[in-house]
Specification:
Elements (H helix, E strand, L loop, with lengths): L3 E4 L7 H17 L3 E4 L6 H10 L1 E4 L10 E4 L6 H9 L3 E4 L3 H15 L3 E5 L5 H7 L6 E4 L2 H6 L8 E5 L5 H14 L13 H13 L5 E5 L5 H12 L4 E4 L15 E6 L5 H12 L5 E4 L13 H11 L1
Parallel strand pairs: 1-11, 1-12, 2-3, 2-4, 4-5, 6-7, 6-8, 9-10, 9-11
Helix pairs in contact: 4-5, 8-9
Length: 316
């Protein structure tokens, strides 16, 4: 029987997600509905539904947005070709890409301009990987695993550099980088690692909590890379873990034999979902619900420059 619930800290929204969601909200306030959004603004179904209710229209491609309309690009970033197509359609573009993803794009462009072959560590098909690859498609090779790093068929003296998706497992990525450096000792590395502070912090918080819990529930959507990595972090350490969108997906059978349950949430999951899961446990008699540690993140990002200019003009 569950007696205690521990809440990981930090958890939930990161600065890039807060900025992206606020961008759509402020755009709706300023321009009025509809405001189009290319892809899910962040990978959370609850956030998407809430914004749809306010008048946001989510599309898969910029070519689905009517000529001259306002379109927000998601936090995951886009390839340069997307900007080109939007310009041809006369879109009012607001780019809500996370600044930490932009940093990776800039690195990729710089490496390509200097004649490097770029090893991109990431997950095939993820929007962030698609966008980063688009910066230098002919010079980029995707590597997803240590085995793929070992199998790279490149000359020993090849001019190589690597970048990574920002939402990967810190430990798994470290293993891939170790393999790359062993095989290609002169490979260039980013000056500062690409895995974002929020991804690293949330994985660290889970690891710190694992010795005290019997089960971990991760609140996040199926397509959220960083949420899936939190589940993997627990399972790798031998602690059962499940990814849930909200309290309706909790299977009571998971809790058999569990005294202490840990809860965390991915970087795109709003805190109200954590509250709802805690209420689910309270309704079943659990009174001991507390933060494992209290660690505040003080990172903030300004709104996209296109929207800031518009709002400043409107305020004059």
């Amino acid at each position: 029987m569950v007696k205690r619930v521990l809440l990981a800290s930090p958890r939930g929204y990161c600065a890039g997600v807060e900025r992206a969601v606020e961008t759509v909200e402020r755009a709706l306030d300023h321009y009025g509905a509809p405001v189009y959004v290319r892809k899910q603004i962040v990978h959370n179904i609850h956030v998407v539904r809430d914004l749809e209710a306010r008048g946001a229209i989510f599309v898969e491609e910029e070519t689905e947005v009517p000529a001259g309309a306002t379109v927000v690009y998601s936090a995951h970033g886009v390839a340069p070709t997307v900007f080109t197509k939007s310009a041809q359609l006369g879109h009012n573009v607001i780019d809500a890409v996370c600044p930490l993803v932009t940093k990776v794009h800039v690195q990729a462009r710089r490496y390509a301009a200097e004649g490097y072959t770029i090893i991109l560590i990431g997950h095939e098909g993820h929007e962030e990987v698609v966008g980063t690859t688009g910066e230098a498609p002919d010079a980029t090779i995707l590597v997803q695993t240590v085995a793929e790093a070992e199998a790279l068929d490149l000359p020993q003296d090849a001019k190589l550099a690597y970048v990574t998706q920002t939402t990967l497992s810190v430990d798994e990525t470290g293993e891939i980088i170790t393999a790359l450096r062993r095989r290609f000792p002169s490979i260039r590395a980013p000056r500062k690692e690409d895995i974002c502070y929020a991804t690293s912090n949330r994985q660290w918080a889970v690891k710190e909590m694992l010795p005290e819990i019997d089960l971990l529930l991760v609140i996040g959507s199926r397509n959220s890379s960083n949420s899936n990595r939190l589940v993997e972090t627990a399972r790798t350490a031998g602690v059962p873990s499940y990814l849930i969108d909200d309290e309706t997906e909790i299977d009571a059978a998971w809790l058999d034999g569990c005294e202490t349950v840990g809860i965390t949430s991915g970087a795109s999951a709003p805190e109200k979902l954590v509250t709802r899961v805690c209420d689910w446990f309270r309704a079943r008699g659990v009174t001991e619900i507390e933060s494992h540690r209290l660690l505040e993140e003080d990172v903030t990002f300004r709104l996209p420059v296109e929207l800031r200019r518009e709002l400043e003009l409107a305020a004059q």
